[in-house]
Every structure is written in structure tokens, then in C-alpha cells.
Write a structure and sequence with these properties.
Elements lengths: L1 H10 L1 E3 L3 E3 L1 H5 L4 H14 L7 E5 L2 H13 L3 E7 L8 E7 L6 E7 L8 E9 L3 H13 L2 E11 L4 H7 L4 E11 L4 E5 L3
Parallel strand pairs: 3-4, 3-7, 7-8, 8-9
Antiparallel strand pairs: 1-2, 4-6, 5-6, 9-10
Guanosine-5'-monophosphate (5GP) binds next to strand 2, strand 7 and helix 5.
Length: 194
């Protein structure tokens, strides 16, 4: 998506450790028009799928997830991050290693909101190594729902997560794909997939 690529070039800030900060439009302050354009583009890409639920992970997936859900006219469901393991058996749980915080946490989704009748599109702001998506995919699989695919705002392809998922046959559509990122020179290059 040209619009998103241009915005990353204009306002994105590259930090050590392969971190891209996009606080002015995606992760702190949200540019609603840009998020809406992402929602519309994902709706076009998945127009052949009868999506019944958008699934994301708190907190940074919720903004973009809401805008995507609006285009699909379906609920947005977000996995909660939990420090305590829920043993009641009324939730699906999975473990996720955090890219940004370098720790492992449990994610939980209530069994009330995901069932074998659902056709799920997973949405997130970033895709790096794929840990967050793998946790969400695990939860979709536990629920017996069908996974239509994943829709990502920014994929950092050089960290490999997206291509590993594609190699497994999972559909991944990313609105901007970064092939290289250089912190010292503050440069990055975009690529494509499919
Ligand atoms: P992964 O699990 O694919 O390694 O990383 C994806 C998750 O980590 C996303 O949910 C996102 O919140 C966070 N993340 C990964 N890389 C970046 C980055 O460069 N910038 C920001 N702001 N978040 C990132």
C-alpha cells in the first residue's frame, strides 16, 4: 500500500534491535484515515472470504483491528495478555514471546467468543518473527474455527516470520513489507510477496 509506505518513510523512526517506531500514526496516536484505508484494502484482498470474526492481540492490534472489522461488518475479538494462568477451562490459552518486551506471556480468549462456526481473519500492527501470530493461530486451531488468513499493517520480512507462515500454507497479506532496515543510516527498503 503506497499510502502506508509513504507514511513509514515520512514518520517512522528506526531504533536499534530492528525496532521501527510508528507512534505518530499506528501505535500511540492513531491516524484513523490511514487505518481505514488499511481496512478497505484488507476487505478487497479477502473479499472472497465470508469472515465472521477479526482476531487480534492487545494492545496495539486493537486500533487497526477495529477499522478492519468495520469493513467486514463483524466483531473484533482481542486476545488478552495474562500474567496468571486461568485454570477454569473457559478460555483458550497460548504462550507468546514478546518481541518488544523480551518476555513470555500467556494470551487468553474466552471460549464464548470463538467457535467452529467462525471464519477468522487475524490482524496485527506488526509481523516480525511471527510469535504473536503463532499464538493467535494456536488459539484459532484450539477453537475449531477456520482460519481464512492474516492481515498485517507492517511486516518486517527480514525477520522471517511472514515467510515461515506462508511456507506452511497460511495466507498472509501485509500492507507494507520491509525487506531491509538500517538503523545507522535510517534507511529502509520495501518489497512485495505473492
Ligand atoms: P512477532 O511476534 O511477529 O515477533 O512481533 C510482532 C509483535 O511485536 C506485534 O504485535 C508488535 O506489537 C510487536 N512488534 C514487533 N516488531 C515491532 C516493531 O518494529 N515496532 C513496534 N512498534 N512493534 C513491534
Amino acid at each position: 500500500m503506497k499510502l502506508l509506505e509513504e507514511r513509514i518513510l515520512k514518520d517512522g523512526k528506526i531504533f536499534e534491535g530492528n525496532v521501527l517506531k510508528v507512534d505518530s500514526f499506528l501505535n500511540h496516536q492513531l491516524d484513523i484515515n490511514l487505518l481505514s484505508a488499511i481496512g478497505e484494502e484488507l476487505k478487497n484482498k479477502y473479499s472472497d472470504c465470508d469472515i465472521t470474526k477479526i482476531l487480534t492481540i492487545e494492545a496495539s492490534g486493537i486500533g487497526v483491528g477495529c477499522m478492519v472489522a468495520q469493513f467486514f461488518n463483524c466483531p473484533l475479538l482481542f486476545a488478552k495478555k495474562s500474567k496468571t494462568i486461568n485454570i477454569k477451562g473457559d478460555v483458550y490459552t497460548s504462550k507468546v514471546e514478546s518481541f518488544t518486551h523480551k518476555c513470555t506471556y500467556d494470551i487468553i480468549v474466552s471460549k464464548d467468543f470463538l467457535s467452529p462456526d467462525d471464519n477468522v481473519l487475524i490482524v496485527d500492527d506488526f509481523l516480525a518473527k511471527g510469535n504473536a501470530l503463532n499464538g493467535l493461530i494456536d488459539i484459532v486451531n484450539q477453537s475449531g474455527a477456520h482460519l481464512a488468513g492474516c492481515g498485517i499493517a507492517i511486516e518486517k520480512a527480514f525477520q522471517g516470520g511472514g515467510d515461515k507462515l506462508r511456507a506452511k500454507g497460511i495466507r498472509v497479506e501485509s500492507m507494507a513489507i520491509i525487506e531491509n532496515m538500517d538503523c545507522e543510516n535510517s534507511t529502509l527498503t520495501f518489497g512485495t510477496r505473492n
